[in-house]
TrEMBL record:
Any further remark recorded for this protein: The active site is located at the dimer interface.
Listed name of the protein: 4-hydroxythreonine-4-phosphate dehydrogenase
Cellular location(s): Cytoplasm
Residues involved in a divalent metal cation binding: H159, H204, H259
Gene: pdxA
Organism: Falsihalocynthiibacter arcticus
Catalytically driven reaction(s): 4-(phosphooxy)-L-threonine + NAD(+) = 3-amino-2-oxopropyl phosphate + CO2 + NADH
């Protein structure tokens, strides 16, 4: 039996605590996990059990949400991030990583953070969770994968302006993204030879240079090189014909050139169940695919489905790693 999943509280003023409690109600009999949080901040919609070590989770899970206490600087007010609590949010993430690195947790699942609150309150120097986790793990490059039952997608470039995409879309970046994606699907999803569909950058994948030359000048060459290395790649493909049901059946993951090219199809197919996965880390990390939702936090109406799916997927991925 693998160790439990370490679930971080995220920004306590957001919906993370509420959906964590709802996730325990759904998963208490199937997916072992514990929440790292300040008990004073809990919503209290379900019972909770304070633990001193992750090895207590199995016995605690039936009685309530297992909580590994972490003291924050001040009380919590839903909808308004407290600057004094920013360091606590960061320290909880560090604690979760240490627990998984030491083998006391099988995976890290992260509730949403509020990056501006962390920057203003604690000088957080990273664009987001993914970059911070890579730094903690000592990894130079990681890949963001979004997954639901119907589709997996990877954007090569992420949170940059569309006008910047052609400048940042280098052969090295595309090669590394393809390598990490293929290795991640083998190790974490148990797919022996992942079938990877690669989108073109331009409409109709450039249509032979009539609508852009990035496919001819760079993407074609990278695909050919990586095929020689043994990766199962097809493309570059027109993005507008890649995501209908028959096309999706022909590949295991779609690698897209920019953020919206990847995220629009998956959020259209299954908005509530999308899970954010970080490939390339030495440990499993998943996250719900939404933000802190300050506007509804503390009202009891936050939808927990994405977190539930993130915990379930983390458990599957950790089990796959343990079997490799």
């Amino acid at each position: 039996m693998i160790p439990p999943i370490a679930l971080t509280c995220g920004e306590p003023a957001g919906v993370g605590l509420e959906i964590s409690e709802k996730a325990w109600s759904e998963l208490s009999g199937s997916v072992p996990f514990f929440l790292i949080a300040d008990p004073r901040h809990l919503v209290g919609s379900v019972p909770h059990v304070l633990i001193g070590h992750p090895n207590e989770v199995a016995s605690a899970m039936a009685g309530g949400l297992p909580v590994l206490p972490h003291s924050f600087a001040t009380q919590n007010h839903f909808g308004t991030a407290a600057a004094a609590n920013a360091q606590g949010v960061i320290d909880v993430i560090k604690k979760a990583v240490k627990l998984v690195q030491s083998g006391q947790a099988s995976a890290v699942c992260t509730n949403p953070i509020h990056k501006k609150a962390l920057k203003d309150g604690a000088g957080f120097a990273f664009p987001g969770h993914t970059e911070f986790l890579a730094d903690l793990a000592g990894v130079e490059r990681v890949v963001m994968l979004l997954a639901c039952d119907q589709l997996r997608v990877v954007p090569v470039t992420i949170h940059i302006a569309l006008s910047e995409v052609p400048k940042q879309l280098t052969p090295e970046l595309l090669r590394e993204t393809l390598r990490i994606t293929s290795a991640g699907l083998q190790r974490d999803f148990g797919i022996a030879n992942p079938r990877i569909a690669v989108a073109g950058l331009n409409p109709h994948a450039g249509e032979g240079g009539a609508m852009g030359c990035e496919e001819l000048d760079m993407i074609n060459g990278v695909i050919a090189q990586m095929q020689v290395e043994g990766l199962d790649l097809r493309g570059p493909l027109p993005a507008d014909t890649m995501f209908h049901a028959r096309a999706r059946a022909s590949y295991d993951v779609a690698v897209c050139m920019y953020h919206d090219q990847a995220l629009i199809p998956i959020k259209t197919l299954d908005f509530d169940r999308g899970v954010n996965v970080t490939l390339g880390l030495p440990f499993v990390r998943t996250s719900p695919d939404h933000g802190t939702a300050f506007d509804i936090s503390g009202r009891g109406i936050a939808e927990p489905t994405s977190l539930i799916e993130a915990l379930k997927l983390a458990h599957k991925m950790a089990t796959a790693r343990a079997q490799n």
